[in-house]
Amino acid sequence: MKRKVEFVTRELESIQAALHKVAAVPWDQLDEQVKVWARQVRDASYDMEDVLDTFLVRVEGGEPVNRSRLKRAVKKMGGLLGKFKARRDITGAIDGIEKQLQEVADRRARYKIDDIVANPAPATTVDPRLSAYYTKASQLVGIDEPRDKLIEMLSIREGDRSSNEMKIISIVGFGGLGKTTLAKAVYDKVYHQFDCGAFVPVGRNPDPKKVLRDILIDLIDGEDEKPFSDQYNGRNTVPDLMPLDEWQLIIKLRKFIKGKRYCIVIDDIWDEKTWEVIKNAFVDSNPRSRIIATTRNSKVSEEIGKVYRMEKLPESQSRKLLYTRTFGVEEKWPGNNDELAVVSQKILHRCDGVPLAIVTIGSLLAGKQIEEWSNVYDSVGFGHGDDQQVNNMKKILSFSYYDLPCHLRTCMLYLTVYPEDFRINNDDLIYRWIAEGLVQTEEGKEPFKDSKQWSQGSDVRRLALHRAEHIEVNDRDVPKLRSFNAIWCVTDNIPPVSRFKLLRVLSLEGCRPLEGHLDTEYLGKLLHLRYLALLDTPIRELSKKIGHLKFLQTLVFPGTGVEELPTSMKQLTKLMCLIADDKTRVPDWICELTSLAELSMRGADGERCLIKELGKLRNLLPARMLSCNRVLSYIAIISVYCSYSRWYSQSCPSGLILKLFPSSAG
């Protein structure tokens, strides 16, 4: 058995490495065979994790499966296999997964997956940012003020004492704010004041040599309208530049700009290394020259030079841009119309002042009756439709997505479990990530650091319902669900908890009534559960069987009316976060929850012994003990024991919020 598990572990590690290579390639550039293979591997990985979890969950003190600790888990399993009656079932499951993984590995070799990933199909679509280079100035809205401010920062106007100094400015902001459009507006306004100029795009995966060549070509073409082949002493043509390396191109660039006053825009820089190469061409050049660079990366912008931060459009300009893109000139705008006012306000709220989003939706609305606007708004909200403008917007925004490391992409995608405009609690989100396995724990580190999971695909492993009146859940998917989130939903949409077999995250908020759907006794059978949140859910009491949830890390139940914690909770030695109801009393055994990092409770008696016990929780982060009658008298005791420097006591008799910084930290 141990040999089989070790084989599966080795295969998973190898395939995970291959999946990281797959994840580095934009989805639309992947071969269909690679996509199929990636989904199969993902499913095999989930299945293996479920088998190991099912096995270890029966072991007293067993650790939940963690990819970064898989080898340790295998070693532990080897010594425990003889102790379980279920060995035969586990053996059969592992045999099946071993066969599944072997087939996937064979398919990887047969279809040369690694070669296909290493040489993805080139993108055939036109760069969606090109339109920003050729947009007419008359079509721009809200550009004048930032353009003039940027020109002022460049100190180009005559009489400005600093105009003789070299100026390098970076424009920074997230995708869709109009960085390229602003840079182009500034360039068009001032380039005639210089001897030569260049406007060169870089992109997420740049070729530094191509960027340097493009700058040189633009500068020469900008100096003289003759064809490039007649320029540069009549000797150099574009083909002549192709074989040159970076250093040779830099030398030619520096030779060309010597003594010239130039204005150059470097558009869309993603990393510092690219900028380091580019700037070498302009060291010690004409001090009266100007360079503008655009980037989405704040760190890169600070490295480049003085920073100009893009801002979203205010509502008035957002509305003007929407109407201009939809109806044309102001004379064609419709008069007072209540329906138009309501739906346009909803659209502008969703666009949130981002010009790219406003222009995209405006292009969809153009030519449509106002009565149809709501349908367009709803369809865009769910990502439907094949409109080219929508596809371009997705493409532009996807650049930022693919610039993230693989594990952070999964963390970002997890945000879709929350409804639109939902206020997300940062700590709660991190605990969910941990429970889902998106953030892993390494030896000697906090569980908020590494993540090693990548997922895309078909089988439903997570399900989120938001104010749903009716939604059908595939019976086939329910036993495989790892995460179930419902926010303000009719409970007829919620499958009975007894149907969940592998659930790791269960979050119900504002779901009433729950008769027949939430059996608190059955909660104790969800042995894989890491995260349990029951907010504004009338359960009144927690089952004694909750102590069976050995892997539970987060327990949240405000608005439930629960007054007491069952003593069986003392067994939850992995519980990191406990956020209770206003009525819940703090038990005297609270210090036995040794992994507790966050505690939020009301109704504590504030007795000296209780405060002292709390002080023994050495992992406790700044805690919130609410309505503690005499906590002020004993807060110093906590400072002696607690390993963190800050404690909060809120809503004490004086209504003060205290911050304590002890000289001793454990």
From TrEMBL:
GO molecular function per UniProt: ADP binding
Protein family according to the UniProt entry: Belongs to the disease resistance NB-LRR family.
Name this protein carries in UniProt: Uncharacterized protein
InterPro entries found in the cross-reference section: Apaf_helical, Disease_R_plants, LRR_dom_sf, LRR_R13L4/SHOC2-like, NB-ARC, P-loop_NTPase, RX-like_CC, Rx_N
CDD domains per UniProt: RX-CC_like
Pfam families noted in UniProt: LRR_14, NB-ARC, Rx_N
All copies of domain NB-ARC, residue ranges: 163-322
Biological processes annotated in GO: defense response to other organism
Keyword terms: Coiled coil, Leucine-rich repeat, Nucleotide-binding, Plant defense, Repeat
Organism: Miscanthus lutarioriparius
